[in-house]
Amino acid sequence: GDKEEGIVLKLGLEANSPEAYQLTVDGKKVVITAPSEAGVFYGIQTLRKSVSVHEGGGAIELPAVEINDSPRFSYRGMMLDVGRHMFTVDEIKTYIDMLALHNINRFHWHLSEDQGWRIEIKKYPKLTEIGSKRDETVIGRNSGEYDGKPYGGFYTQEQAKEIVAYAAERYITVIPEIDLPGHMQAALAAYPELACPVVKDKITVLPGLGGRNPEMIYCAGNEKVFAFLQDVIDELLQLFPSPYINMGGDEATKTYWKVCPLCQKRMQEEHLKEVEDLQGYFMGRLNDYIRSKGRILMGWDELTNSQLPEGAVILGWQGLGNAALKAADKGLDFVMTPARILYLIRYQGPQWFEPLTYFGNNTMRGVYDYEPVQADWKPEYEKHLLGIQALSLIHISEP
């Protein structure tokens, strides 16, 4: 009623998105109305950003205004890689706070890498006993020199639950990623029997980015691999209520699959002509399992190189992310996360005085100007575009 003063929060706005809100300021009060709690929350963030903090306190004045705001995309994501570099729980909470302030509602948590496995799996303790530790870390980028210092760490299941709850309070869904069948050298160091039997070298947790892509990969012809991964997925499903479970699928080098008798036998049995189709089979089986549990498999755009998993969501990352359009052609939903624009690990200014990082430049202007829907898109692509995501990977260790 008219007696309201101060800041008033209300549910009940008619809007095209549950995350929309209306913010009005008059002489007596600030009113934030939205269809959902999440919408009210985003209105509060806009109010927070409108208040200028000045020295010495004093009255805060806001101009009279009416703001009607709604998100263009339902999926607004940021990825954090904790595989190559470990962040504390407090650091991750700070990261989530920053996401919340910017109305980002998906936190994609990249929990496994060649350089470290970071999530406790009770059924397979060696994943963290062995897979979370490396002997040393490369200095700089592919220098061939190493620091000689052991490095490691992982999140307990309790810590994962704490982070999921912290994010949920800020209307952020945590999407876990276990990246396979490549990017799995840490897990294979823990359970080397899951690699192809032709692998004779000792498998170790990688000390950083070195020369070629690592070629260690799960054996696609070994049934034990699928039993193991289903067990891992079961524990992830308990920890993460997210509708999406990301299984990676990028940069999997097939050197061993080409010569492994078990993989070759699998290809014959499944009538697969190309070794790339074996990855389609591999991801398809995981997709069937995840779908049977009522969840959705998410993966990188390499999944478009073979049979696409039914109902999966594809992240378009390579270059400008256009490989994801092959998924849209098949009626799948996709998210744009183009490396050339939204990988926030590149230089942001002149390279000679910024800290050493990944190659290439990404400027604030380039990110701000990014328009995912390109003029040459088929009209049906846009309805399959869930939204966009940026990415922070830590590829480089401090020299």
Question: In brief, what are we looking at here?
Answer:
With 399 residues, the protein is an alpha/beta fold. 30% of the residues lie in helices and 21% in strands. It has helices spanning 37-50, 89-101, 126-129, 157-168, 185-190, 223-239, 255-259, 261-269, 275-292, 324-329, 339-342, 364-368, 379-384; strands at residues 6-11, 21-25, 29-34, 65-69, 75-81, 106-110, 112-113, 116-117, 133-134, 151-152, 173-180, 244-248, 296-300, 313-316, 333-336, 346-347, 358-361, 385-392.
Question: Which key phrases capture this entry?
Answer:
13 helices; globular; 30% helix; 21% strand; 399 residues; 8-stranded parallel barrel; alpha/beta; 4-stranded mixed beta sheet; single chain
Low-confidence stretches: none
Whole-number mean pLDDT:
93
Find the count of extended strands (DSSP E, 2+ residues).
18
What class, by secondary structure content? alpha/beta
Rg, Cα atoms, Å: 23 Å
Percent helix among the residues?
A: 25-40%
Q: Multimeric state of these chains?
A: single chain
**Which strands sit side by side, in order, in the main sheet?**
5-6-11-12-13-14-15-18
